[in-house]
């Protein structure tokens, strides 16, 4: 029998307490979610993946708690697919944020003063609390280094989708009618191996890339950003390694009731899969990630440097904005006088 056992096993009555516990933990993150969304100094789209996962996990654990008490829900095929998709794609959503932060970390230090307005960090760089200050006048711009940092990021984005698609497809292919079907098991396993292996590969790239940045990007170097993304990539690697280690587990006798549901297996699941996810999301939301990584509102969205015409248009827009602000200030002064 080579059909993989579902990650997390069945939601049995002993799973009620941890399900409620983690549902509450994720619910406690909601104030942070709202704060990061509405606070203009910390709002950034680069946290979108973590925000979506944090909200979805409340639904996930609420349903899991219900499954522990209702046998028909516990053996529901549709809920089986949902839980496997959620667990397979959830930590990949966190990976998406890490890759975007990784790009900002590599790109921000390459800008000279003449192109600093193109840097993701430039909007917040004038703030005293910013981790990225504008470069000095005599510091040179490094366009070639920036070009290759962006190409590396493009490659990691492709690998990210290469992990996302099989994770989703693998969850969809889970079917209780196929348990014990060796042929179906052989068809499913490559999806699970491919997804987790690619995520582990991406975390290795982040570790290598941050080490290179630590040694070769002393200008605007933000050690806090490097320490943070390294720690989060280790946590994400733990989830990927755990998933790789469980694929060999099978559902003997072709029954969902015989999937690995021992106390030790469940403890390992909550410790090595669920807890690292929560710690990662909490870290990204609890601290001002926008300030730490210099992301601005949207991160580094440019595929290349601005051309001469782009620079002219940008300066023209900046001039109009400054003129408008000046007119508003004059109008306000007249009203208060």
Distance between the termini: 85 Å
Question: Quick check: average pLDDT?
Answer: 87
Query: What is the 3D form?
Result: elongated
> Helix share of residues?
55-70%
Largest sheet: none
Classify the beta-strand content into a percent band.
under 5%
H/E element order: HHHHHHHHHHH
What value does the Rg take, in angstroms? 24 Å
Number of helices: 11
The secondary-structure class comes to: mainly alpha
Low-confidence stretches: 253-257
Model description:
The protein has 337 residues and is mainly α. It is built from eleven helices and no strands. It has helices spanning 16-27, 30-38, 48-69, 71-74, 77-107, 143-173, 182-216, 223-246, 263-286, 289-293, 308-336.
Keywords:
single chain; 337 residues; mainly alpha; 67% helix
Helix/strand layout:
Blueprint lengths: L15 H12 L2 H9 L9 H22 L1 H4 L2 H31 L35 H31 L8 H35 L6 H24 L16 H24 L2 H5 L14 H29 L1
Helix pairs in contact: 1-3, 3-5, 3-9, 5-6, 5-7, 5-8, 6-7, 7-8, 8-9
Question: Quick summary of this structure?
Answer:
The protein is mainly alpha-helical and 337 residues long. 67% of the residues lie in helices and 0% in strands. Helix 5 packs parallel to helix 7, helix 7 (182-216) runs antiparallel to helix 8 and helix 8 (223-246) packs antiparallel against helix 9 (263-286).
